[in-house]
Amino acid sequence: MSDHFIAPVAAAPVAEPVGAHEPPYYAVVFTSVRTEGDNGYDETAERMGELVKEIPGFLGEDAARTPGGLGITIAYFRDEAAIDEWRHHVEHQAAKKYGRAHWYERYTLHIAKVEHSHGFERARG
């Protein structure tokens, strides 16, 4: 049993989850607890969101944050090469370094291979 508590989630600006993709692909799960204040975070996060879309093999991103500060971002990539390209992107590396110094109390990163994926959408009308 986990020692984590369940908290309500405040939706990120994206109103829909990333759709299912043909497996295999990869999910990069970044779970974080932020420091107090913005300290330029929102502006940088927006820039990173723009840059990652330029990475060949980037499939999309889901994100949510609890009122208590727990954030979860899941970025989906076609292959490990795309993840490596994003990991080594110069601006992303600078943002990670700044984040460790200013934005995060703690974080974890998990990379998982997705072997099954499907979705559901209720018919409208």
UniProtKB/TrEMBL annotation:
Chaperone recorded as keyword: no
Gene3D superfamilies per UniProt: 3.30.70.100
High-level lineage: Bacteria, Bacillati, Actinomycetota, Actinomycetes, Kitasatosporales
Residue ranges occupied by any ABM domain in the UniProt entry: 24-97
Record GO terms (molecular function): monooxygenase activity
Oxidoreductase in keyword set: yes
Keywords: Monooxygenase, Oxidoreductase
Top-level EC class: oxidoreductase
Superkingdom classification of source: Bacteria
Catalytic activity, EC: 1.14.-.-
Protein name: Antibiotic biosynthesis monooxygenase family protein
Pfam short name (any one): ABM
Species the sequence originates in: Streptomyces lutosisoli
